[in-house]
Amino acid sequence: MIRLRHFLTTFALFLAALIPPQAQAQNAPHVTVIKPAPAEFVDRIPVSGTLVAREEVFVNTRINGQVIEKLLVDVGDRVEKGQLLAVLDKRQIEVQLAQAEADLPRARAAVQQARDQITLAKARLRQAQTNYDRNLRLRQSGTISQAVFDQSSSALDQARASVAAAEAGLGIAQAQLQSAETRVRSARLNLSFTEIRAPVAGIISTRSARLGAVAVAGAQPMFHIIRDGEVEVQADVIESDIGRIKPRDPVSLHISGLGKRSGHVRRISPRIDARTRLGTVRISLDSADSLRIGLFSNGWITVGHHKALGVPTSAVLADAKGDFVMVVKDGKAHKRRVVSGLFWKGMREIKSGLSADDQVMLRAGAFFRDGDQVTPTLVDAGAMK
């Protein structure tokens, strides 16, 4: 059986050799060929991500233990800066303010009384100083006794001590007045904190506050506000591509339920996630209509574009050694190694390996071997884009 197969193969080759070359060319299969032509290629990077707030502001209470009495906004409401969002129970703080304000006049009166004491003490000091000076002259002339002089000297020391004590009393009274004023300011400040106001304009995205609940400073924020209502995309990019992205690069996205949207790169994260090997970019969108936080989006970031020699993607084949095309020359197919680049609108960039005069097999290259006889039919490259 093996001998018979070998004999038939040899006989077929013998018959093929007897056929004139002209007849072989006439019977060669017809193939479509195309010449490489300059084309525009756009370099794009795929991205996917989620819509997030460009800046989310937390609103919380600054005082503890007050019950929430009123809630004036809900999720989705647009608010202005300074707008009242909620009101806390203020009765206890109003009592504290009334007590502090009542203590204030007494503290001011104590300061005035201390000043009066200083005035009186200084007057007594002047009188004691006058008596001492007179008695000193009289003692030097021998007119008065030592005991009388000592009494005037002791009175002078007492007057000086009284002035020092009065001045110290003024310091204490002033400190008490300052403390009373601080209590008033603190009570008034706490009273203002019972009104929760929006620190920025925007949209309420979350409301955890509930009527009757006790507000606790430092706990879960009562409200989350999307500042100015600005929503953008937080997208993930593989680490090998993120270095090619620049701020302001144009972006084309498809957002779930909303369709196509355009935008640009606003910010590029300087960090790569060690677990996922992904970097993050923030993308500002040209239109904010109907955008909702949490929606999924995917698309492309355009990082560059250029003109280069290209062929239809069907003309480029690949094997274990890399990319190649089948070039037709003198009616024969020849395998040609090429270095390919970008894909764009059905075209493949050819970085090296071809010239504009080469004729490249368009689709059937995989069915031919190097040296096969073919009949080429040239078509216009512009019609294939």
By DSSP, the count of extended strands is 22
- The main sheet orders its strands as 2-11-14-13-12-15
Q: Name the poorly predicted regions.
A: 4-19
CATH class annotation of the largest domain = Mainly Beta
The secondary-structure class comes to alpha+beta
- CATH topology call of the largest domain: conserved putative lor/sdh protein from methanococcus maripaludis s2 fold
Please give the alpha-carbon distance between the first and last residues.
Answer: 52 Å
CATH architectural label of the largest domain: Beta Barrel
Number of helices: 5
* Cα-based radius of gyration, to the nearest Å: 47 Å
Binned, the helix content reads 25-40%
Element-level helix/strand string: HHEEEEEEHHEEEEEHEEEEEEEEEEE
Describe this protein's structure.
It is a single chain. It is elongated and about 160 Å long. The protein has helices at residues 2-18, 21-27, 91-141, 146-193, 239-242; strands spanning 30-34, 37-53, 56-59, 66-71, 78-79, 84-88, 195-197, 202-207, 214-215, 223-227, 231-238, 250-255, 259-272, 278-285, 296-312, 317-319, 322-329, 332-337, 339-344, 347-352, 360-361, 375-379. It contains 5 helices and 22 strands. Strands 2-11-14-13-12-15 form a 6-stranded antiparallel barrel. Strands 3-10-8-5 form a 4-stranded antiparallel β-sheet, with no helix packed on it. It is α+β, with helices and mostly antiparallel strands. It folds into 4 domains: 20-39 and 307-384, conserved putative lor/sdh protein from methanococcus maripaludis s2 fold (Beta Barrel), CATH 2.40.420.20; 45-54 and 230-306, Elongation Factor Tu (Ef-tu), domain 3; 58-89 and 195-225, OB fold (Dihydrolipoamide Acetyltransferase, E2P), CATH 2.40.50.100; 92-183. Strand 13 (259-272) and strand 14 (278-285) form a beta hairpin. Helix content is 33%, strand content 37%.
